Amino acid sequence: MSSSTAPARLTVLAGPTAVGKGTVSADVRTRYPQVWLSVSATTRAPRPGEVDGVHYLFVTPEEFDRMVDAGEMLEWAVVHGRNRYGTPRRPVEEKLAAGVPVLLEIDLQGARQVREATQAAGLEALFVFLAPPSFDELVRRLVGRGTEDEEERTRRLETARVELACENEFDVTIVNDDVHRATDELVSVMGVGRSAPVAG
C-alpha cells in the first residue's frame, strides 16, 4: 500500500458556554463524516434527545473517578461548579495513529489540559476558539435555549465572560454567526475536505 499514514493532527474546539460548540460539532458529524468526533464522558444527566454513546458517555461519578484514577482521561474538568466532563484518551490516540482527523469539542479548562498533554507528548494540535457575534447574542442564545433555570443561567453567563477573555490563548478564532459557514471554516483550517492530502 502506498498510503503514507502520518498521524493526523488533533483539533480542539472550545469557546464560551452557549456559543454553539455542540451545534457546530453536530454539523461536522453530518456533513464531514471523515472527521472523527471524540465523545466526552460526563456525570451530568442526559438532556432531552441526547443519546448515550453518541452525544456523551453518561457515567456515574464513581465510574468517572475510576477512569481518572486509571489515567484513562486525556483531560477532565468540573464545569460550572457542578458536573464533570472528560475526554477518554484511548479512542483519540487510536484514531490519530490511524491518520484520522480528530475533533475534540471541549471547554476551556479541558483545552488547557490538552495543550499541556500534547506538548508533553510532542503531538501537534490546533486550538480553535468559537466566538459569538457579540456578547448580547450569547446571552440571547443562552436564555433562548430554555434548559437552565435562572440561577444556572447567571452562573453560566459569569463563566462565559471569563471564557471570552481567553480567546488569545487559541491559534484560530471562528465567529459562529452561521452554523454551516462556521463549520466549513473549521473544517478548512483542519485541512479536511480537500481532495487529497499532499504527501510530504
What does this entry look like structurally?
It is a single chain. The protein is an alpha/beta fold and 200 residues long. The chain has a single domain, classed as P-loop containing nucleotide triphosphate hydrolases (Rossmann fold, 3-Layer(aba) Sandwich). 40% of the residues lie in helices and 20% in strands. Helix 1 crosses helix 7 (179-190) and helix 5 (135-145) runs antiparallel to helix 6 (150-164). The longest helix has 15 residues, at 150-164. The chain is globular.
Could you give the topology of this structure?
Elements: E1 10-14, H1 21-31, E2 36-37, E3 41-42, E4 57-58, H2 61-69, E5 73-79, E6 83-88, H3 89-97, E7 102-105, H4 108-121, E8 125-131, H5 135-145, H6 150-164, E9 172-175, H7 179-190
Parallel strand pairs: 1-7, 1-8, 2-7, 3-4, 8-9
Antiparallel strand pairs: 3-6, 5-6
Shape: globular
Strand order of the largest sheet: 2-7-1-8-9
Mean pLDDT: 87
Largest sheet: 5 strands, parallel
Q: Provide the β-strand percentage band.
A: 15-25%
Name the CATH class. Alpha Beta
| DSSP summary, beta strand count | 9
Give the second-level CATH assignment, the architecture.
3-Layer(aba) Sandwich
Q: Which class of secondary structure composition applies to the elements?
A: alpha/beta
CATH superfamily descriptor: P-loop containing nucleotide triphosphate hydrolases
Helix content: 40-55%
Number of domains: 1
Q: Within the CATH hierarchy, at the fold level, what is the topology? A: Rossmann fold
Question: What value does the Rg take, in angstroms?
Answer: 17 Å
Total of helices? 7
Weakly predicted, low-confidence segments: 1-5, 195-200
Following the backbone from N to C, one meets helices and strands in this order, namely EHEEEHEEHEHEHHEH
Query: What's the N-to-C terminus distance?
Result: 16 Å
